[in-house]
């Protein structure tokens, strides 16, 4: 049975997470969820062990970054609409961790050239 907080969270996120047909840039679509579940399967599947570490440059993280703000709670909302058998294949905690693990890599730092020094004679 869902707790009151869980029900409120589900209602709130169901309102926030638009259906792909609504708007040009939905927060999270069913296609986004499917892509994440397929490309990240090894990282988010149950059982909890062994734990695999996802690379920021992996296809999994590329799929995660397609969801606005990498908000994986929206993926969980869409997954909650699937069968219980399918839901049981994935770890909610691991799905939520993808947000922090798939932060876009920072651009390489360029060292500025040394200051130009002129000598006045």
Kindly report how far apart the N and C termini lie: 85 Å
What does the main sheet amount to? none
Helix and strand succession? Answer: HHHHHHH
Supply the helix-strand structural class: mainly alpha
Shape: elongated
Helix content: 40-55%
Continuous helix count:
7
Mean pLDDT: 82
Number of strands: 0
Low-confidence residue ranges:
19-23
Percent range for β-strand residues:
under 5%
Oligomer: single chain
- Structural Rg: 20 Å
Signal peptide: 1-23
Keywords: Signal
Protein name: Bifunctional inhibitor/plant lipid transfer protein/seed storage helical domain-containing protein
Could you please describe the fold and organization of this structure?
The structure is a single chain. Residues 19-23 have low confidence and may be disordered. The protein starts with a helix and ends in a 20-residue tail after the last helix. The protein is mainly α. It is 47% helix and 0% strand. Helix 1 (4-16) packs across helix 5 and helix 2 runs antiparallel to helix 4.
Question: How would you concisely characterize the structure shown here?
Answer:
The protein is mainly alpha-helical.
Task: Please supply descriptive tags for the structure shown above.
single chain, 121 residues, mainly alpha, 47% helix, elongated
Present the secondary structure layout:
Layout (H helix, E strand, L loop, with lengths): L3 H13 L13 H10 L1 H4 L14 H7 L6 H9 L3 H4 L4 H10 L20
Keywords: Signal
Protein name: Bifunctional inhibitor/plant lipid transfer protein/seed storage helical domain-containing protein
């Amino acid at each position: 049975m869902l707790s009151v907080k869980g029900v409120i969270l589900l209602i709130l996120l169901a309102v926030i997470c638009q259906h792909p047909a609504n708007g040009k840039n939905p927060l999270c679509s069913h296609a986004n969820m499917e892509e994440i579940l397929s490309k990240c399967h090894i990282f988010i599947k149950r059982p909890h062990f062994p734990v695999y570490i996802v690379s920021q440059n992996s296809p999994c993280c590329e799929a995660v970054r397609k969801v606005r703000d990498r908000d994986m709670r929206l993926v969980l909302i869409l997954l909650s609409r699937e069968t219980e058998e399918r839901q049981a294949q994935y770890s909610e905690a691991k799905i939520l961790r993808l947000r922090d693990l798939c932060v876009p890599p920072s651009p390489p730092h360029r060292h500025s050239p040394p200051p130009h020094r002129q000598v006045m004679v």
